[in-house]
Each structure stands twice: as C-alpha cells, then as structure tokens.
Recover the amino acids of this structure.
C-alpha cells in the first residue's frame, strides 16, 4: 500500500485506519444511495475486517 488511508464518521467520534488497499472501490448513482447521502452518488469500498484498525470511538449500528 503506497498511501496510508484514515477515515471516520462525519461527527468525528469514530476514527479508523486501513492496513491495506481495498479489494475494490465502487461509485454508485442509484436512487437509494442518493437518498442516503443527499448527494448525486456515493463511493463505497470493500476491505477485509481484519485490515481495519479502530483508532477512536465505539462504532455501533444505526437503530
């Protein structure tokens, strides 16, 4: 992996680092993704769970 990638949620409470490149990156323009993001598209990536290092916070599912 040439570039270290870090990210997190919009509020900043959860932060993470990826230990490798994602398996793939996908840009979706479907209506469901537009509604969920309030944007014209969303960018998703797939990575193995053991390649994600939690730096801060406690991620929980949305209820």
């Amino acid at each position: 992996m040439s570039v270290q990638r870090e990210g997190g949620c919009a509020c900043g409470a959860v932060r993470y680092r990826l230990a490798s490149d994602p398996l793939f990156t996908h840009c979706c323009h479907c209506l469901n993704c537009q509604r969920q993001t309030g944007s014209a598209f969303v960018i998703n990536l797939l990575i193995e769970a053991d390649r994600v290092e939690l730096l801060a916070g406690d991620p929980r599912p949305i209820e």
